[in-house]
Amino acid sequence: MNWREFKSLTESEWYDCDLYEGVCGYQIQPETRWNSGLTHNEIDSLQKKLGFSVPSMYRTFLSELNGFDQDCVDFQAETAPEIYGRICYQYPEDLENTKWLLEEIEQNRKYVNEALQLEGFPFDDIEGYIALYGHRALVVFKNKSLSPVISIVGTDVGVYGKSLEEYWKKELCVNSLG
């Protein structure tokens, strides 16, 4: 995947995107941009903090993109105020903020393993997880050519993308990239 092209395409989509009041769930604000990527040394340092090496595709992604430059907005209900929050995680800043998702994955490991097995992934070869966006996480295997992304809310677990590339295209509705 050409992550620079992906960045350009998504940022142009967000430049004048609409927000939908009354719709629950975080929405990307107009004029949102991706943060600059990490240097090779910063990625190496992140891997040390994680305790495992990241897949090559994620390493390339991180060298170009690292979360959004502004929080997303959620209109909870007509009577509730807007809530802003970081939904697209950036590293290393969000290592602490994403522990909840890693704990949820561990608590529901049986369901995570079942979801991965159904999609043909070797769940006994997992090194760790990296929170990406909301309740979605990259599964990191010993085989670094694998990069599936799971979606997890309690025991409701599914493979949301069989690769990091497939995941981001689906998450951000990018169909025009080959």
What brief labels describe this structure?
alpha+beta; 4-stranded antiparallel beta sheet; SMI1/KNR4-like; two-stranded antiparallel sheet; 178 residues; 6 helices
What is the CA-CA span between the terminal residues?
8 Å
Task: Please describe the biggest sheet, giving its number of strands, its sense, and whether it closes into a barrel.
Answer: 4 strands, antiparallel
Beta strand count: 8
Strand content: 15-25%
Helix content: 25-40%
Pfam family, one: SMI1_KNR4
Protein name: Knr4/Smi1-like domain-containing protein
What does this structure look like?
InterPro entries: Knr4/Smi1-like_dom (IPR018958), Knr4/Smi1-like_sf (IPR037883). This protein is an alpha+beta fold. The chain has one domain (3-171): SMI1/KNR4-like (3-Layer(aba) Sandwich). The protein has helices at 3-14, 40-50, 56-64, 99-107, 109-118, 164-171, and strands at 34-36, 65-68, 72-75, 82-85, 126-133, 136-141, 149-153, 156-161. The strands form 3 sheets. Strands 5-6-7-8 form a 4-stranded antiparallel β-sheet. Strands 1-2 form a two-stranded antiparallel sheet. β6 (136-141) and β7 form a beta hairpin. The protein is globular.
Topology at a glance:
Blueprint: H1 3-14, E1 34-36, H2 40-50, H3 56-64, E2 65-68, E3 72-75, E4 82-85, H4 99-107, H5 109-118, E5 126-133, E6 136-141, E7 149-153, E8 156-161, H6 164-171
Antiparallel strand pairs: 1-2, 3-4, 5-6, 6-7, 7-8
Pfam family, one: SMI1_KNR4
InterPro entries: Knr4/Smi1-like_dom, Knr4/Smi1-like_sf
Domain Knr4/Smi1-like: 37-170
Quick structural gist:
InterPro entries: Knr4/Smi1-like_dom (IPR018958), Knr4/Smi1-like_sf (IPR037883). Helices cover 33% and strands 22% of the residues.
